[in-house]
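Blinded run. Sample ID left blank on purpose so nobody reads anything into the name before looking at the predicted structure. Input follows.
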Amino acid sequence: MKKTFITAFFAVLLAFNTLHAQEKLVGNIAFYNVENLFDIQDDPAIRDDDFTPKGDLKWDTVRYIDKLDNLTKVFKSMAAPDIVGLCEVENRSVLNALVTHKNLIRYKYQIIHFDSPDRRGIDVALIYKMGKFTPFDIKSIAFEDEANPDFKTRDILHVKGLYHGDTLNVFVNHWPSRRGGKEDKRIMAAELLRKKVSELQAKNPEAKVVIMGDLNDDPRNKSVKKSLLAHDNLKKMVNGELFNTSSKTFKQGYGTLFYRGTWNLFDQIIISQSMLPDKSSTWHYKNDSFSVFAPEWMRVKEGDYKGAPFRTYVSGRYQNGFSDHYPVFIQISK
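Blinded prediction complete.
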């Protein structure tokens, strides 16, 4: 890392409290890979045996409640974002438990979720504040590989709704993992998403689009830059290409997860050019507001993994942490 996460966290606080004089902050949009948010029930249709009281991880009611306590503390500390994309949630039951938790219930979060074909049973979802975002079109976009029909992964969630009086399209993603070197599968996921975005832009070139998710690739990787057409070079950007709000943060050396001695920024928020300040006549993305939320209490405090996300389990040992990823967010101004 080129900078410590202590510096990064103070930068986040500064972003929350410093506004351009001509702008008014009206909201924030976030994404969080919550790492294995399972209930304690055994579902025979998925591979959740470890996350049961009799499983290897001894996942019981106490640990499940601790996980909910920890995650909701994160959301509350992030000032309860208007819209939050999630991944690695087992089902609607855990989402209900999350949004009705004592730390979040006053925000009246609503849930959008579909069960996906992932063999582990982990899904993507969206929660949003009632009155802040009003969905009117919801789709689940299936990932299909004709050459390998047995390959199963998470669907892409597409939610269209009204946000501050304008239509916003949100895509929530959790692309295939790097386990086994499946770059081709992530490129396929990027191409599928690019096709859906292009269809939207063909109907309305000014469509506002937010793409969020754990892409299992960094902003510089082929799937993101070449297949999805998302980068941060405004001078070279052509019509239809996407602006990756995460790229600058990655170039500065920040990450959202630490693996084998390397920081990655898999958790990204990518937007259409129509959300940039000089392109939008309504609300817009606040310049340079993409941030990794990594306060000290969410970090490993010592050892080789100092500064890394404080996890629920490490090598099968219970730690009572949060996730192996940090959440990310952007701010919206008008």
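Unblinding after everyone has recorded impressions. The longest strand covers residues 25-37.
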